[in-house]
Amino acid sequence: MNKYQKLFQELSKEKENAPSDVNDNILIFDGLNTFIRAFGATPSTNEDGDHIGGMTGFLFSIGKAVRDFKPSRCIIVFDGVGGSRRRKKIDPNYKANRANKTRLRRHDHQRFPTIEEEQEAMRHQFSRLISYLDCLPVTFLSIDGIEADDTITYISEMYKDISKCITIVSTDRDFYQLVDDTVRIWSPIKKRMYTTDTIMEEFNVHPNNYVVYRSFTGDKSDNIDGVSGIGPKTISKLLPELAKPDVFTVDDVIEKSKSLITESNKYKKIVSHDETLHKNFKLMDLKQLDISAQHKSNIRNIVQAPIPILDKNEFRRLFMEDKMWSTMKDLPKWMNTTWLPLNAFALETHNMDN
Prior knowledge:
By secondary structure, the protein is of the alpha/beta class. It folds into 2 domains: 22-195 and 289-337, 5'-nuclease (Rossmann fold, 3-Layer(aba) Sandwich), CATH 3.40.50; 207-284, DNA polymerase, domain 1, CATH 1.10.150. The protein contains 15 helices and 6 strands. It has helices at residues 3-17, 31-41, 53-69, 85-90, 115-133, 148-159, 196-203, 210-217, 232-238, 250-259, 265-272, 274-284, 293-303, 312-321, 331-353, and strands spanning 25-30, 73-78, 139-142, 165-169, 183-187, 192-194. It has a 6-stranded mixed beta sheet, sandwiched between helices. Helix 10 packs across helix 11 (265-272). The longest helix has 23 residues, at 331-353.
């Protein structure tokens, strides 16, 4: 086979796999997760010395994912106001560590002399970012009273039976429990796609039982303590059932541990942490969605509405106001290569509405 025949085969395969419907290949971003990571990692400033890294880093990040995964629809989800309230009722310490004022850019004292200035820069860029997203062919939403995790889970459930592929972009490992034949998780830090096989390989746990596994390990980022002394290796040894696709609940874990309590002090320790395990499971379980019918209706109305059309002129106006040309050096190329394919699908949603 010569190089031209090989190229033709590759192009034919790419065309064959290309989405034909707006819901074929859905890309969902954990918005705040993406923004905080961009703000902390991107030191970009404009010619006036103003930090613009949160905005440019976010736009570059979502743009790269759009080009790499070639979705037919892009959804960006942010936490709603008071979104943590439900889980704080379960555990008042949930996310309490995030209330502490700590620097994201620990080595950038010259740019942000105080924590207050850093946080003000974050607020300003986040607010400004929404204006940029208004110009792009994406759906973004934030539902008051709901965390982004729950909104993303509900959207995934909405489209799982009609979509060929749903990719969630986040570094939050709680999403691993959603993985199945349709849903996968892209970690932009690890540069790794998490599928059932990947999760089995890394954790020796099936996605169906991942939340039970996490009930033991906890989540430092959300201030959820695990069970000390029961780590990944111990979990695999004592609870090999978690590697199977059959759902193994916390109650199953406790019952098994009670029956084997004389065989190992580890089983005794599991039984003594019954309350902690049940609490952690409630905090981290995404599949048992505890959101109101009104909230579900609001989510459906937003994601099923026609997708906004690309507005190059308004985006360019904002771009010039923020003097971002030193960082985004070829704006026309970035706009065309990244957003025109998505815009074609967005236009279809307006035609369907007519």
